[in-house]
Design brief:
The complex is a heterodimer of chains A (545) and B (369). Chain A has 545 residues and is an alpha+beta fold. Chain A is built from 17 helices and 21 strands. In chain A, strand 8 and strand 9 form a beta hairpin. The longest helix of chain A is centred in the first third of the chain and has 22 residues. By secondary structure, chain B is of the alpha/beta class. Chain B has two domains: 100 residues, TIM Barrel, CATH 3.20.20; 206 residues, Rossmann fold. Chain B has 14 helices and ten strands. In chain B, helix 8 crosses helix 9. Helix content of chain B is 35%, strand content 12%. Chain B starts with 13 loop residues before the first helix and ends in a 55-residue tail after the last helix. In chain B, the strands form two sheets. A six-stranded mixed beta sheet of chain B has the order 7-6-5-8-10-9. A four-stranded parallel beta sheet of chain B has the order 1-2-3-4. Classes of the chains: A alpha+beta (545), B alpha/beta (369). The interface between A and B is large, with 48 and 46 residues.
Chain lengths: 545, 369
Amino acid sequence: MYKYDTYDHSLVRERIDEFRDQVERRLDGRLTEDQFKPLRLMNGVYLQLHAYMLRVAIPYGTLNGPQVRTLGHIARTYDKGYGHFTTRTNIQYNWPKLVDIPDILEDLAKVEMHAIQTSGNCIRNVTADPFAGAAADEIEDGRPWAEIIRQWSTFHPEFTFLPRKFKIAVNGAGEDRAGIRVHDIGLQIVRNAAGETGFEVWVGGGQGRTPRLGRKIRDFLAPEDLLSYLTAILRVYNQHGRRDNLYKARIKILVEALGAGEFGRQTEEEWAHIREGELKLPAAEIARIRAFFDAPPIAEATAIPATGRADFAQWLRRNRRDHKVAGLSSVVISLKPVGGAPGDITADQLDAVAGIAERYGFDEVRATPDQNLVLPHVRNADLEAVFDALAAAGLATANAGLATDIVACPGLDYCSLANARSIPIAQAISSLIEAEGLAGDVGDVTIKIDGCINACGHHHVAHIGVLGVDKRGEEFYQITLGGAFGTDAAIGNIVGKGLAGDDVPAAIVRLLRTYLEIRDENERFIDTLRRVGDEAFKESIYVAA
Amino acid sequence: MLQLERKPLARETAQNQIEAGGGHVVEIPGESDWRDAAEQVRDAVQVDIRFSSFKDGRGFTLATQLRERAGFTGRLRAVGDLIPDQARYLHRVGFDDVAPERTDLAADWAKARARFSHAYQPAQDKVTPIFRHRQARPGDDLAALNARYRGADAADILRDAIRNEWAGRIAVLSSFGAEAAVGLHMIARIAPDTPVIFLDTGRLFAQTEQYQRALTETLGLTNIRMLRPDAGEAAAEDGDDRLWQRDPDACCALRKVRPLDKVIGEYDALITGRKRFHGGERLALPVVERINGRIRVNPLASWDAEKVNAYFQRFDLPRHPLSDMGYASIGCWPCTAPVQDDGDVRSGRWAGRNKTECGIHTPSRIAAE
């Protein structure tokens, strides 16, 4: 993985000094609260319902053992013993004291981490396929490009006070696991007729209040032109994106208003003037960054172990993924124990993950948009030892991709924006599905829950989405159907009136039972839904109500 | 629908005209599209871009595009609701100056502007982006360096040279002469511990020695490196103290060139205060050059006497005591005279002889092989 050099180190240290200075100036009045707010947000510091929250960046979701151990140290020392992984592959701490935050940042800097641009109206952490560099269906590892974008976007002089936040995702595999169509810019690595790799460029995707799928504005962008093209897009957006209405300020609104064709034309017009300039990436720098992301070597091509253990077999079936290198596998560490808070992990569990990654995982861990972790490279011969070590830490839940692998935003338990609780709803749903013994039969299905329309929990792109709304002081939950996050990206449809929170788990169970009744053989939930439409399911949601 | 209508451009104000010395000054809102703005600013010497809110970043792109697309080369000033934490961003996108609404935070602005030592992106300040640094070694590409520094502020060139390009391997060469305070003042604000090499030839004016001590203290320079001629060589070659008269080249070699040669190997680059308007061989002076295999950085190469004087006034810098007495360029006392009427700035150096340089900036005949 990427290793800082003296330049990267000095910028992170200088940023901490800057933040200390900003806190000091806020305290003595040289900065007003209105001025301080965007500055603290751009260092990942939120003011939540009960306390400050610190969001730490995990660039393109990639971590090593010492970094994971440091995350555990922070959870133990400055928080209440746990952290929370987010859908944008970052980690949040919900209880730090403001005065401790510069010290936390110092601890992070020691292991080449930071909280830079994890919030604010700037270019946020770049996300990628969590299986990048490992996936069997990969065209090219997207992480070197994500790192190049991370550097270019860090403290960008032109794009730090944008109309609204800006998210970029890079996907390098055949299947889209980065969600490029629900990002402000999605970059899909493709191969052209000459066999060269480049990028498809998608713009204007996003979730929130006005969910939109991104539109493709370029079929093939040569890699050395990446930064000039991104600059051109951001220039058009920075100048013409709306600033009069917070809810209409994202690039998706501009792309929709202009039309993707016109937006693309304006981008290309700007790009024509800068593509041969200073932003053209030198081949040597591309090669230098790429060299950090080589796949690990493998001694012998061992097969997946046969096993008589039911628990290990189930875990292999659900949580193991094929690797591009013979003899290796990737495994998902589910952070969704039945009845647990999605994405939460304790300090001890973080230490355990660090140890397992160092011993068996070539020192690499990934965070995923599903709020899980991945060990991207594990020798097949070590799979059983990994399973046992994870089980000992309470991290071997064999439900990756199942109905109990629920994504949820922090909701009204933490978030100052939320209208409704989401974690307790997730816990109740997964507990009921488990009690009914449904998860295994139902198989692949995504359930995602949000406590408000900002959609951090990605309910718009879930097969089954749950959105909490506040109606005259009471929580209600709308169900959406048919959304999808990846290659077949789609925005779910609201099926009807909201349900009381207590009624949601049973409604979802009925929905899943309906699927089991009407599915064709081997048909996944989403395929049945697309075949028969929402109506058949709508009935099961409201039957008891 | 989108609201892309442009607000009307503000008319120039008389007050700004006065500030800019009678030139044509235009104020435009940060919300302007650069194409509309380009029309308005074509003949302006100064353009003020007004930020209605520090959170509205349109002015950052507008400034960039006025520089990049409209080719505006005059002064750009950011005015309005701005905070010190934006100092570096403003500078990087091409602003020369800032006039924030709150005026009591000059120290915070200065600190914020110098906060970061490097930058990942290329921008209008021509600082070398980190990704180019990583490719820059070994060997310095003079053409690329000069292209990058073309049109850049002297202070930016110095910051980049001292902090990035030759960090830890660069020193300043200063005569503590009539113009020296300009470059030294900039350096003191960037890194007051930068080594300042001062050649004490043993033939300096008493006023120069006094000025050297005073200026060092005023600017807070902490690393003066005083070089003197070798005493044995001086006794052997200049026993009668008349070498300057018999053979000034030999005198300069004894008292300046050889003492510098002894330490020059410790640095990859030396900063000088030479300027093209000095005339002679300096007329074609580049910002970065290589002399005997070592880099010289001349950040003030394009400055003229007027700009030097304005800088002295702006920062209220102390003058060399002899500069009021007609000495425009000050070397050793036996070979320096005041400039006669209409004479070039260096015409008082080795006056009456066919010599214009002491030799520390001249390629040596041996090294030229």
